[in-house]
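Session log. Operator J.P. requested a structure for one protein chain; no other inputs attached. Running the standard single-chain path with token output.
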Amino acid sequence: MMAGTQIFQPAAAATQVLPGLRRRRRFWRGELRGSEYAWALAFVVPYVGVFLVFSVYPVLFEVWMGSDPHLYPEVFSDPVYQRSLVNTVLFVAVAVNVKLFLALLLSGFFLRPGWWTKALLTIFMLPWAVPSTPIFIAMHWMLNGDFGFLNNALWTFFRIGGPAWLDTRWLAFGSAVVCYVWKSLPFWTLTFIAARLSIPPEIHDAARVDGAGGAQAFVHVTFPMLANFYFVCTLMSTIFAVGEYNVFYFITGGGPANSTYVLATLAVRDGFDLAEPRLGEAVMMTALPLLIPLVILVLRRHRAAHVQL
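Structure written below.
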């Protein structure tokens, strides 16, 4: 009996361990076997390595550099930071809403039949196709109050002396917002065109049969079906706009008198111009209380509704 018991106990232990090993192996391998699993590893491991090196590591390094609590009293007491925070909030609130609303309207315009709308759409997409740096540098010189293209055009055609666009805070800030909307508007218009095309045409046909005009069809059919998609686009555009750097750096340069800094340009100023990289990281860390809820909201919204159109 003792020998039988000693033989039975390892067998029982093995039967308890094997299911756990199988579950663990299935978790990692799935349905892949042999060479399929080796090929899967060969394709996945480089991408995981690139993601860890270029995405995870920089984020963790940024969090570590901005983790010193003694940095934040200096950040919050800086009057330039206070203005930059106000500018960032205003920029995000105005630029994101104006840009997406115009993109939604223009997407309907460019879906009209006719070769001329397709030609206009091709021209309309050009600002988005050109890199942002040369465009914003050109915009900076076009807005020059003394010899810029815009003021010269106003004087040549209308005999109107244009203002000094970049010499006052709100004119410079508004010019940057307009340039940002103009540059990014084609991308979001194309996005909404694709969203509109995914709506079954039978729905619009039924609304037309019921007597709905263009405005009624948009209010009662098109927009309700795009509402969830529009909301997700708003969240994503807000996340992008919080970190916008190029438009303010190349058009206003933070001027006049440091009045048009946003958080992204202020972080670069502190980190490079003032040679205080930890202070610059602390400036951007103050945006995390806004960004993290937005990211979580996007993920939850996508998981709950799967961005249904």
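Operator note: The chain has two domains: 29-65, 79-305.
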